[in-house]
Design brief:
20 helices, six-stranded mixed β-sheet
């Protein structure tokens, strides 16, 4: 028996208004516009999003924000679930990506704008293709806007080489790494860069899902010749999220023949994925060989200084004033997701504007607590221990052990010192936690660190970083 669904337009409007105030305009336009909130009779809420891409980002980055907004109007909320809206029955299901127009062409940026193209392969000579931009080409996703560091310098250089010499150096170019590291940015930057250098070039940027859906729709409509002509007539083909290709053998064969055709014609092909070519699941051997035959580059997690640089770039792009100390705290706590960095920055700026105060380290810590990244309440001994292990690059178990290595002993003494200053525990309790050490041993460690901190700036910086890590 199906559950009774209660549409509550006021809750939807309340959530949208909350998101407008608390997320960046770019994020709102990309992920939030068009969402619908439904309260179900079991006390849960369902958030319907326009696209799968929007659903994934809302659930990963903004779930807490949305839940808080819903709970304001519906206090008995239990949980929030996300799903993409089903496609309307009269909507075309053919999605073959975005073909960048010439420099003089009129561009319709409406996401579902239909484009009529004269193509071979059917009796009428014309096929109506839905130019569904997923994701849309963003003016922000240009190579000159890409912040490079140790983690992505090779990928950035390779992307620039492809723009300057498409099809002649790296083909295919395969970029891989976890979500939020800039793969889509680089692909869109390459697409726009090639087009700017050669306005007559036919450049297709699409997702793997769009390619697969387009193939299925063309097969059902008996317009495969037109589908193939569209892709094989391009000068550069860029496909995002290739790991979703393991749907059917026929789609893989179609992509294989398309890539081989483009390579033989000296055209450029670029792929992105979460995993390396050798780790793709259920890929046909011939296609796997082609994917491995070009240049494969892994994008690593951004290092600390690059994360700080990214935050300043994001703030500058939106004309936000950002205190460097606040940026460093956000970068210290969020290591593996640029999306989370942006969400935390938006949260902090929203609070600073609402209260009429400048961004600060305290506001940054408050935003991290609200987002669940830093635990609320006073730090625990375990919190301090983990922060010390992270700061000094030693194992937490070694710090609590009887090891007397200089690096371990130093981390242990700092841990005792910080624990005494930021937790409510007594010296005896701290000693028991750090390997059943007696009262005098703990006091000796604290006095030693106190003396070093008075004359040694690096020691003061280490203590300060550990306190920031535990939210103190």
């Amino acid at each position: 028996m199906s559950k009774k669904i209660i549409d509550d337009h006021s809750i939807t409007e309340s959530v949208l208004e909350h998101l407008r105030r608390n997320v960046s305009p770019d994020s709102f336009d990309a992920y939030c516009a068009g969402l619908v909130v439904r309260i179900e009779d079991d006390g849960n809420a369902t958030v319907l999003t326009p696209t799968r891409h929007a659903r994934e980002n809302l659930e990963k980055i903004f779930k807490r924000e949305i839940a808080n907004a819903i709970r304001t109007a519906f206090p008995s909320l239990l949980d929030v679930h996300f799903c993409a809206k089903p496609r309307a029955a009269n909507e075309s299901s053919t999605t073959v990506g975005a073909v960048l127009p010439s420099a003089h062409a009129h561009v319709n940026h409406t996401p579902h704008a239909a484009a009529t193209a004269t193509l071979p392969g059917n009796n009428n000579g014309k096929v109506m293709w839905a130019a569904l931009l997923e994701p849309p080409l963003s003016p922000l996703y240009r190579l000159e806007n890409f912040e490079s560091g140790v983690c992505n310098r090779i990928a950035c250089a390779a992307a620039q080489t492809v723009v300057e010499s498409p099809g002649s150096v790296y083909c295919p170019l395969y970029l891989h790494g976890d979500n939020g590291l800039g793969k889509t940015h680089l692909l869109q930057g390459i697409a726009q860069g090639i087009k700017e250098r050669n306005p007559a070039a036919k450049v297709i940027f699409t997702s793997c899902e769009a390619f697969a859906n387009g193939y299925i729709a063309a097969l059902q409509a008996r317009t495969l010749d037109a589908f193939r002509a569209r892709f094989r007539a391009c000068d550069a083909l860029l496909i995002d999220d290739i790991e979703f290709l393991s749907r059917t053998v026929k789609i893989q064969e179609e992509l294989l023949h398309t890539v081989q055709y483009l390579r033989n014609a000296g055209k450029q092909v670029v792929f992105s994925a979460i995993v390396a070519p050798s780790e793709l699941a259920r890929i046909e051997p011939k296609l796997a060989e082609v994917l491995r035959s070009g240049l494969s580059i892994k994008l690593e997690f951004p290092e600390f200084e690059l994360r700080v640089k990214l935050l300043h770039a994001l703030a500058k792009r939106r004309s936000w004033a950002l205190d460097d100390g606040a940026a460093r705290i956000l970068a210290l706590h969020i290591e593996k997701s640029v999306g989370e960095l942006e969400g935390a920055l938006c949260k902090m700026v929203a609070v600073s504007r609402a209260n009429g105060v400048c961004t600060s380290s305290e506001l940054a810590l408050g935003a991290l607590r609200d987002l669940g990244i830093v635990r609320s309440g006073p730090p625990t001994l375990s919190d301090v221990l983990e922060a010390c292990a992270k700061t000094f690059g030693v194992k937490a178990d070694d710090i609590r052990s009887g090891k007397r290595d200089a690096s371990v002993a130093h981390a242990r003494h700092i841990g005792m010192y910080v624990s005494r200053h930021v937790t409510p525990h007594t010296v005896a309790e701290i000693g028991r936690f750090y390997g059943n050490r007696d009262h005098s041993t703990v006091l000796h460690g604290i006095r030693k660190v106190t003396g070093m901190a008075k004359r040694d700036e690096p020691i003061r910086q280490q203590i300060h970083q550990i306190k920031q890590l535990v939210g103190s």
